[in-house]
Design a protein that fits this description.
about 500 residues; mainly alpha; 19 helices; about 80% helix
């Protein structure tokens, strides 16, 4: 037995509060800015094609560095890296709150993602370090999972409240006092872990993050220039080269960030691919609907945040239902129902008009919430099934990485399609109305662009369904990892 399991932390309740609060802060920051996007666009004069980077910059660095962040905890101490991650996150949040330009805000959002990529995996690992095996650790995992699952809903609501009552800047400033409490109280209650031998895969982390960044930049650049412009093509080609180099690094490295043998199992690879597609399809839904509710329907930020709560609640309820179903009928059924429900919701959203009301939004997002809820748990179980206990953390972290990276790439693609469609429809309407566009006609053009984005998202969700039908070949699973940890990651994903 290691020292980690022999000497649990003295103040377990306070230790859990610190870990869970930090995780909540990191998770909710993926959604807290969504409701504030229209206010941010007006405040910093973002263009339509660049606004997507407020969300994408965070997702890219968080997803791209998640495995790297977890590895730093193993090598240099989980508590030490947890506090470093929280510190980076807090400083980036403070600087982001003072942003005066769009580039300033985008850079700080990327720094937030980097801090979160260090803090999040080490926070989960600290539960194993500070809590003894058995009921205490299982209860801690349950609280951690609840915080992770609630993060999206809390972020949407908090973003609306802060933007309405104060300013969009407070969706970033709010992280500073929370992080300060964690950094002041945490050292006295959290115990350090043992360090392990090995090296950091710095070349892997740099090439994969840079490759994904160039890919997303190339996709968004096409909206302001064209798919055949020199910059767009240079970025896309450079991204392809860097990602190929990353795979070569991983194949040869003894300390690979992403050991390629983890993909040898077809069901596990299918789960990663499905999560990539689901993330790509769903991130755009929140992005477009946030702007639709505020810019077209005239909702306040708070009202828009409340409007999203049904989807968060549906995901939570359906995740619990799916967790019970997979034990009885296996994963194949939920992994078919989930993508089909998401496809139905996205097709429904693609029919929105500038005069549609909230009921035209509520039905589709409930379908999408059902689809996400039925997908997350069986995908997590499929990803960790059959892996060695020592690799269960890597297997589940890759799923979260796929979701974040898929979301960033999908959002860039959908935003580019939407901007091009808006520009095209605006030109058509201007030509047919003598160059004079009323507010109603402008709204019609914008919603047309959103609808095109939803249609492309539908196609991506269909790819997830196709993978489920063709690739996934397992029914009942028996994960090798700790059941509490598996359940936690399923909710966190």
């Amino acid at each position: 037995m290691t020292a980690e399991t022999q000497a649990p932390a003295r103040h377990l309740g306070l230790a859990l509060a610190i870990i869970s609060t930090a995780q909540l802060m990191v998770v909710l920051d993926a959604t807290i800015v969504n409701v504030a996007l229209p206010s941010i666009q007006r405040g910093l004069h973002f263009s339509l094609q660049n606004l997507v980077w407020v969300t994408t910059a965070y997702s890219l660095t968080f997803g791209g560095l998640l495995l790297f962040g977890g590895r730093t905890g193993d090598l240099f101490g989980r508590r030490r890296m947890f506090f470093i991650g929280i510190g980076v996150f807090a400083v980036a949040s403070l600087l982001g709150g003072f942003a005066q330009t769009d580039v300033w805000l985008i850079i700080t959002r990327a720094a937030q993602g980097a801090g979160g990529a260090i803090a999040s995996p080490t926070a989960l690992a600290l539960i194993a370090t500070n809590f003894p095996e058995g009921p205490a650790r299982n209860r801690a995992m349950g609280v951690y999972a609840a915080m992770s699952g609630a993060g999206a809903a809390v972020g949407l609501l908090a973003g609306g409240v802060l933007t309405d009552l104060a300013s969009w800047r407070w969706v970033l400033f709010v992280n500073v006092p929370i992080a300060a409490v964690v950094l002041l109280v945490g050292p006295g209650v959290l115990r350090e872990s043992e360090t392990r031998g090995g090296r950091l895969d710095v070349p892997g982390a740099i090439t994969v993050t840079a490759g994904m960044g160039l890919l997303v930049y190339g996709l968004t650049n096409a909206a302001s220039h064209s798919w055949t412009s020199t910059t767009t093509l240079a970025c896309l080609i450079s991204a392809a080269v860097l990602l190929v180099v990353f795979v070569l690094f991983e194949a040869r490295s003894r300390h690979a960030l992403m050991p390629l043998q983890i993909f040898a199992n077809r069901n596990r690879s299918g789960a990663y691919l499905m999560m990539l597609f689901i993330g790509a399809a769903i991130f755009g839904m929140f992005y477009f609907l946030t702007q639709y509710l505020q810019n077209i329907l005239g909702y306040s930020p708070l009202k828009a945040g409340l409007a999203f709560l049904p989807v968060a609640l549906t995901i939570g309820v359906c995740s619990q239902v799916a967790a019970r179903l997979v034990g009885r009928i296996g994963v194949r059924g939920p992994l078919l129902v989930g993508p089909v429900a998401a496809i139905a919701g996205l097709v429904w959203l693609s029919q929105l008009t500038s005069t549609s009301g909230y009921l035209s939004v509520l039905g589709p997002i409930l379908c999408i919430g059902l689809g996400m809820g039925f997908s997350f748990v069986p995908l997590t179980l499929t990803a960790v099934s059959g892996v060695q206990r020592s690799d269960s953390g890597l297997a589940s972290a890759l799923l979260n990485t796929g979701q974040q990276i898929g979301g960033a790439i999908g959002l860039a693609l959908l935003s580019t399609v939407s901007v091009e469609a808006i520009r095209s429809r605006t030109g058509q309407l201007a030509a047919s109305h003598g160059g004079h566009l009323t507010v109603a006609l402008q709204h019609q053009a914008v919603v047309h662009g959103y609808d095109r984005g939803f249609m492309v998202a539908t196609g991506i969700a269909c790819l997830a369904l196709l993978v489920s039908v063709i690739v996934i070949r397992v029914d009942r699973l028996s994960p090798e990892g700790d059941p509490a940890e598996v359940a936690t990651v399923a909710v966190a994903a």
